[in-house]
Amino acid sequence: MKDNSICIVAAQHDLYDDRCYWKQAVSLKNAGYRVYYIIIGEKEEEEGITNEGIYYKLVHQKRYFANRYFNFIYKKLFYKKEQFKVLFKACKEVNANLYQIVDLHPNRIIEKLKNLKKKPKLVYDIHEQAYSFYLDLIMRKWRIPKIIKKGYASYIQNWEYKKAALHDFIIVTDDALKNRIEKNIKNARVECIYNYTDLGKYREYIPIENKEYDIGYIGTVSEERGVMIFLEAINILSKKLSSFKAIIIGKPVNEEARKKIDRYIFTNSLEKNVVFKGFIPYNEIQYYYNRIKIGTNPLLNLNKFQEIIPIKLFEFMNFGMPIIASEHKYMCQYIRENDVGICIQAGNPKILADKILFLLNNLQEMERYAKNGMKAVDEKYNWSIMEKKYIGIIDSLLNENIS
To answer: Which segments of 31-187 are extended strands (E)?
Structure first.
């Protein structure tokens, strides 16, 4: 065990998150570091050690209203800082050599971490642009003038840049984020750690025609991410195919989303065609990945999605799934350059249904996409490549302390 300890501090992520836990925390542990993982969220207080040897602590974030919009406004107007005092106390007790901040909100304690007696190194791990996240997701359905929404989203974005500048190093998940950081933060040290897949060892090589599910939607279950477009396409297909099976895997963004999906399936008599599995732990999901013929990513046409590179792309490739995804710049660049699927107009269930039907009727085309995807992951898009880069960054930062 190295003398150095590292603490990952996150919000909006689960304990067993695919990137924060299974890739970063486990990779650091395997590299010989003592690793702590502190998460602020709505779950009750809990702490312990995982089977992989990661020390963890859950810090409870109080929810004042069931409605997330009322809850958001209340916290902004009458914010209670106790939860961030608890978060800082937990971080201070760890006394780590390096703190890696994931997500926006833990930056509230960045100055306090920077002033700790030990003078730890600070790394900010950014997964998405704050401006688009607030404008396209948090405030998308709010009935207030768009100019106010844009103004507040800009305020949050500028706040993030100021906090990010206090870190010793910044990690991002895609090139667009890297360009934004370099443009807005003078002398920023920033590198891309792409969210490539680490599931290669679980590939089963099942022939496409023998797979159980014809179509899959995997990821956060929300309208913005296209789950209703997916279901509408399934409804169209149900009138053209005598039998087929689709699967939805993921955590609904809220109870309202879950109920809406259940109602749609029942109203359109799709019970025989759609299996809604809900959340599947990351270390168990490979069973289903191996049994899906086609992977879909029907994201809506929102600015937030124009620049992201979803991990699902690499996971679909890894398990030999042809991909049908919305026409977004960076995502479709990977799909086209590696010839692993089809890009379609966002928000159009008829086109999605047509392309699904086309692939199901063209096994040779599916096999070509599948073969190209697996080859791309094996050669370029696997976590082992990013792991070396990530550990190298951490090692280098901690060696600066020694020197």
So the answer is: 34-41, 46-49, 55-60, 98-102, 121-126, 169-172
pLDDT exceeds cutoff 60 at 69: no
- Greater confidence (79 vs 304) lies with 304
Looking at residue 380, its pLDDT comes to 95
Tell me 219's DSSP state.
Answer: S
For 336-369, how does the pLDDT look when each residue is reduced to its tens digit (9 = 90+)?
999 999 999 999 999 999 999 999 999 999 999 9
Q: What's the rounded Cα separation, in Å, for the pair 209 and 364?
A: 11
Task: Round the CA-based radius of gyration of the chain to a whole number and report it.
Answer: 22
- Which parts of 83-212 are beta strand (E)? 98-102, 121-126, 169-172, 190-192
* Separation CA 296–CA 321 (nearest Å): 9
pLDDT value of residue 208: 95
| For residue 1, pLDDT beyond 60 | no
CATH architecture label of 200-379: 3-Layer(aba) Sandwich (3.40)
Predicted pLDDT of residue 318: 97
- HSE toward the beta carbon, residue 382, CA cutoff 13 A: 17
Tokens standing for 363? 């096994």
Which residues of the chain does CATH 3.40.50.2000 include? 5-196+382-402, 200-379
Domain 5-196+382-402 CATH (choose: 3.40.50.12370, 3.40.50.2000, 3.90.180.10, 3.50.30.10):
3.40.50.2000
Rounded to whole angstroms, the Cα distance separating 369 from 335 reads 10
pLDDT value at residue 403? 43
User: Does residue 377 carry a pLDDT above 90?
Assistant: yes
